Every structure is written in C-alpha cells, then in structure tokens.
User: What shape does this take?
Amino acid sequence: MARKASVIIEKDEHGFYAWCPELKGCQSQGDSLGEAISNIKEAIELYLETLPESERDTLLSREILTTAIEVNA
Assistant: This one.
C-alpha cells in the first residue's frame, strides 16, 4: 500500500541531510538532492518494515505542516 510521509531536507556544506519527522531516528543523507530523496525513501521503507501495521497507521496518520515565515533579523 502506498502512503505518504513527511520529509525535511537541509542543504549544508557536506551535501543534503533528510529526515522524516513522523519516524523518530529515520534519517539519511546524499551528495545531491536526488540521492538524498532516494536514500530517505529507502530508509523510510526499511523503518516501516520493522513496525506492526497498526503502529504504521498511527505514525503516518499524523498531519505535519511546514511553511516559511519572514522574521526580522
């Protein structure tokens, strides 16, 4: 069954760092954005394989919203 998971990706001097806020500790990285996306997708799928289906449903039903706001700095 296909499901959606939130992924946050940050670029830094080492490449791209990605993590899934619904799944504590589920993170990955890559030298390029595409590689980071591919790697975090694989990490999420492997992480979900370790969970009972009821726990997967609970974790992936959380609604996580992201946005950007302007601040004075």
